[in-house]
Amino acid sequence: MRDIRIGLVVGASRATVGGRGAVAAIRNGRPAFRIPAGRSVTLTPDGRAFRVSGAHRGRYEQLSFASLAAGRHVAVNDNRYRGVIEVIVRDGGLTVINALPLEDYLRGVVITEMGRRPRSERAALEAQAVVSRTYALKNRGRFGSSGYDLHSGVTDQVYGGVDRETDDGDAAVRATAGIVLAYQGDPIVALFHSTCGFSTAAPEEVFRTVRATPYLRPVSDRRPGGGYYGDIAPRFRWTVEWDGNTIRDILRRTLPAVLGVDPDAISEIQDIYVRRTGPSGRATDVRVRVPSGEIPVPGYAVRRVFETPEGSPLGSSAIEFTTERDGNRVTRVTVSGLGWGHGVGLCQWGAVGRARAGQDYRTIVTTYFPGSSLVRWY
Q1: Residue 1 or residue 63, greater confidence
Q2: First vs last C-alpha separation in the chain
Q3: Which of 100, 131, 150 represents a domain boundary (last residue)?
Q4: Does one domain contain both 228 and 359?
């Protein structure tokens, strides 16, 4: 199987490359220069190429970097990575790519996504390994026109490289090596999120473009005997408050940006309420009442439209609004929410709760993706 290619840095004005051991710079398959152990070079874009600082001054359109020392790795911006590092220029900015075997990539994903877990919760790490492997295979080539497969951040799944690897994370990857979730012979759309609250979501409740499938549907996270598997999450319940002027100013900015609403229509907020919920109970139609009528906010836009006072999206769309008024004018809005993230697919804190309850990774992943099967892909 060919290496997976991860976009570590995209569109940057600067990057450093080096390592604790000596690093070789390679151009067109031939050595270009050598970076001594413990040293680094700085790369800066220059038109369609980039320049290299220090004793290795030069202008290059492409370079690859590989460690020359056994057990050492190439560092990019002081973060270490397995495999090979490639640097190119796209649209005037640096693109830095890490090419490495898929299983090595997962070693830098599992703990970065799930956090460190005790041995008793290893099933949750194994569940994440299966879901992340499935996600990577399903989305390979997503950014092929830019030279890589996946981003290293939340656009895809967060990849931290060598410095985020742990023995338990590595063990979870080994225990599930080559195993993916499949439906009708293909890897599934393996979405995941932090905390589902009371239930996972249906795609149509929270996304505009993700197609509904038999294995992506609401799954109750209720625990036998009461409570929910994910109620151990630090952000299982949350609230956000705005005063009337703050929410008006936020909506005057976000409604035009997200939904194309005329900002002049948002002179005053008279009410905010959930008009309709979807199959899981999440808000799929929120109404903002203004002097000229009501502005509908569909489910996929709820989290971005109702920004917190700090400028972050709402934690989830499993919400209820409470308003205080002075006549027809809203003076304060409080939203109470459950869960964190979009809510579709694997619930990471729910997986931890299920691991604590003794469920193995097979039970966890097939519960959150009903109708899918575990398949050894390679």
Answers
A1: 63
A2: 9
A3: 100
A4: yes
pTM of this prediction exceeds 0.90: yes
Q: Are residues 49 and 80 in the same domain?
A: yes
Check the CA dihedral 100-103-106-107 and report its sign: negative
Share of the chain above pLDDT 90, in %: 96
CA distance linking residue 107 with residue 80, whole number of Å: 13
Nearest to residue 357, comparing CAs of 224, 236, 234, 233?
A: 224
The closest alpha carbon to 312, from 335, 278, 285, 286, belongs to 335
Strand order in the sheet with 93-100: 30-35, 23-27, 62-67, 84-90, 93-100, 4-12, 150-151
Residue 64's pLDDT is 97
Q: Which of 223, 202, 224, 205 is nearest to 213 (CA)?
A: 202
Tokens, residue 270: 């008279």
The answer to whether the CB of 79 falls within 8 A of the CB of 59 is: no
Under 8 Å CB-to-CB from 67, ≥6 apart: which residues? 19, 21, 22, 23, 24, 73, 74
Which residue's structure tokens are 């890897």?
Answer: 187
Unique residue bearing structure tokens 């919400």:
319
E strand or H helix that includes residue 137: helix 122-139
Q: Of how many residues is the chain composed?
A: 378
330/264 same-domain check:
yes
- Together in a domain, 188 and 148: yes
Contact 44, 72 (CB under 8 A): no
Average pLDDT for 265-291: 97
How far is 126 from 107, CA to CA, in rounded Å? 11
* Long-range contact set of residues 136-145: C-beta below 8 Å, sequence gap at least 24: 136/4, 136/102, 136/105, 136/106, 137/102, 137/180, 137/187, 137/377, 138/186, 138/187, 138/188, 138/189, 138/190, 140/4, 143/7
Residue 34 CA, chain-centre distance (Å), reads: 35
Quick check: is 308 in a domain? yes
Digit-coded pLDDT (tens) for 167-202: 999 999 999 999 999 999 999 999 999 999 999 999
Which phi and psi (to 5°) does residue 170 adopt? -60, -40
Q: What is the pLDDT of residue 222?
A: 97
Task: Please tell me the distance from the alpha carbon of residue 117 to that of residue 228, in angstroms, as a whole number.
Answer: 19
